[in-house]
Amino acid sequence: METYLRMADLPYQNYFGGKLSAQGKMPWIEYNHEKVSGTEFIIDFLEEKLGVNLNKNLGPHERAISRAVTKMVEEHFYWTLAYCQWVDNLNETRKMLSLSGGGPFSNLLRWVVCHITKGIVKREMHGHGIGRFSEEEIYMLMEKDMRSLAGLLGDKKYIMGPKLSTLDATVFGHLAQAMWTLPGTRPERLIKGELINLAMYCERIRRKFWPEWHYDDDNTIYESEESCEDSKTHTPLLDFSSYSRTETFEDEGAENSFSRTPDTDFTGHSLFDSDVDLDDYTDHEQCK
């Protein structure tokens, strides 16, 4: 939801009170004292109220594909990620939560909350049906979804082509978990290894729409699945309590001097940057 708001250039303020919507769900928003819950209904509401539309470049066939993929991600891939995060790797998740500063929770309370969440996730997955499969079968389903996304993306900048759509906010919001919150797990090894186009896609969106989200080393090196078995580094959970494009992108149009690094093209632009024209890069390389 946050990535969608950034893509649509809509300022917002986060509140981390833990309060659920009237339907007992997250996310939910309040706009001019009107509350709306559920990502799909929130997007419909914002399109009607504010006239934003990230799908204006999609035709009827592309819109149908976009909705089908959205539901695969939200109603299927989501649960396999939840299993990996809250059931199979609960201790690693608890460690990552402690890096956010602890918030209002003590270590003991955080341990209790994590284990309660594990029970809730297992119960919900059982009701959904996907939780009735074995661990290996759940990961097999996850891999099929990730391979489908990688195949659909191909070498395009965005899922549906050269321009952003609402689907990119959905896909990024889920793949980002595999990229940055599940260290050493099967989905992380897959996305940073065999399905490298998904990793570069995530990096493009992160750098374009989350400019304050920095790493100590932004020249990320992706390893093969076999070589990162022992690599379990944690990324601190930063406080993104508010966002305004005016504040964070004020220098976007300024000229910059680029240094050539392993992930930059001949102009100095990062190959992760969604604005880089890979065709121009290929033509330049052929002329050398």
TrEMBL record:
InterPro entries: FAX/IsoI-like, Glutathione-S-Trfase_C_sf, Glutathione_S-Trfase, Metaxin_GST, Mito_Protein_Transport_Metaxin, Thioredoxin-like_fold
Record-level GO cellular component terms: cytoplasm
SUPFAM superfamilies noted in UniProt: GST C-terminal domain-like
Family named by the database record: Belongs to the FAX family.
Alphabetized Pfam families for the sequence: GST_C_6, GST_N_4
The protein, known as: Failed axon connections homolog isoform X6
Region named Disordered: 247-288
Sequence ranges assigned to domain Thioredoxin-like fold in this UniProt record: 1-90
Domain Metaxin glutathione S-transferase: 143-205
